[in-house]
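re: ur question from the group chat, yeah i did fold both. here u go
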Amino acid sequence: MSIFLNVLASSEELAPLVLPALAFPLIAAVVFTTLGFVTWSFRDVANRQDPKAAKAGDAHGAGH
């Protein structure tokens, strides 16, 4: 029974963290917000340019 009590009484020591526990989710939120802003800033980029196929076809007189 004493082994059982020793195991029950012993507890693991917590590893020290580099930053407070609240800092990790805040850093993740800042990173995801920044990446979301970068993704949002490149929206509609494909529609800003003329299609190359239409330009090339019209230059050769093949404007069907």
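okk and heres the other one u asked abt
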Amino acid sequence: MAGQEPAKEMRIPSLVEPDAASTHTARYAYEPFDRKSQFRRLLFRSLTRWLITVALAASIYGVLWSYSSKPVLASKRAFNVVILGLSIGLGLNIASSLKGMVSETRWWLLSLRPTSPREADLILQSENLSRMILLGLNTSRFSIKLFVSFWLLVNLAAQIALATLGLTYNVNPSDKFALTRPGLVSVPDMSEIQTNKVLSPRPSQAISALRYTANSYGLVALAIGFGSLHEIPQPGAVFNPDNNLTFCGQTSCRYVFYEATPSHASYFANVATNRYVETSASCQGWRVLQGGDGLRREIVIDDSEKSKYGPLPALNGPEQTLFMHNPAEPSGDTWSIVMALEASSTDPWFYRCNVTIGSVINAVAKEHLVGTSVSRMAAPAIALQGYGASTTGVANSTTQLQFQSYPAESSFGRPVRGDTNAFSLLLAQFSCGVLTVVAQSNSNILVPGLMPIKGVTLEITSWKYVHLILATGVGLQLLLTVLALVTANSVQVRSHSHLAMAGLLRPVLRDVSSVANGRQVASMMGADARLSYAPGRGGGYHLLLER
């Protein structure tokens, strides 16, 4: 009719099968199978997944090594975030790698023999763990059960290994090192020797009290112990009463100062600093020609002039060392002269030594310095007697010769038979021991410094288990990758594309409803139906329906 638009033609998609020619063209235009090309593709994917695992495992090892090598950490939060992220990443990558291996080897499993549609459907979904378990429960074939059991055990072992890795380390409060920050710290008052720790104060005998206390402190230091210079604690090391406090070299010794939190702090920490004081001694030694048995008041030494020395303040016989200090001789605030007779019936020696107290290294405040009253007493302390030191019968004289005798069996009386370095070390040890005990026993004062604060430390309980877990995980994944690659490449591995999967399944599902689920489709295909994944023309594999 005029004025009316012509009716539009409606086109309905045709469900008619294409003719043989068009089918032949469609099948072989895009389906040539190249096994070498497939191998390269599978190798690239598998190697990429494995290299990611290697990188994550190496990162975890590096983090553990880096954090455990630090003596103290400010907080465990940063470590936990890093190690948790890497562990999760490693776990996900291993799970993804195992899923990829199953996705590739399922085609080999499907090609072994014709199987029921239901089992074939579950095999194609076996990369999903829940479907793999369902496959194992629904099949009666031993090969499929073995396939399912193997991959389930591998997945379980991987998760257990990652969980076990967390048992190889602990983050604990640091008991060896502490962090520091600017603040008030408690340091020993080194301005003087506080004799009230040994004697009741007697102003009339102040010098004698100091001498007696200094000598007593030198002997007490033996109980604290002496170590070598390589044992010196690092700054920030927490005080340990079981460790040595005095450290000696060839002819000198050092004491390292500690700083503690103030008494009003909510916690207590006492840590080593970079400050130290060093004592040293330089000795000359001569054989004793006469009077060396310690029973004569005068001795003759084997120097160039055959000098005489006497009278001795005490006649204590052989097998002892008599140390002497004359307060009237020249001395300084940090040095003194000490003489000694190493009495012996067979090999006596006489020594003259200069003992020096060094300045405090790295001191930044006057409260860090050693007072002159302390250094004057510490240098000759091994010879100081204090009370009863007299050669003329005048008791408690402050100007008479000071002396102390130590038996050969004692630490400070052992004979060195002319070894001046060994004898110098004895005097350096004694004087440094005095400083050590003064620092430990004197009262403390508050000064600005670096206050110790609590920290944490990462402790690796066993490195061999860390090595075992990470190396085994990386090595087993590589082994499984090689086995899966060889197995999967024996057949054609289809891609995950839904279009490609639809094209594979189309020949066997033409007469099946498109709205049915997997179980219904398998039922509609019949109980006697069997699906096989077999090679066709051109080497490519196709899904075939058999009855």
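fwiw on the second one: Residues 179-454 form one domain. The chain has two domains: 35-172+458-546, 179-454. idk if thats what u expected
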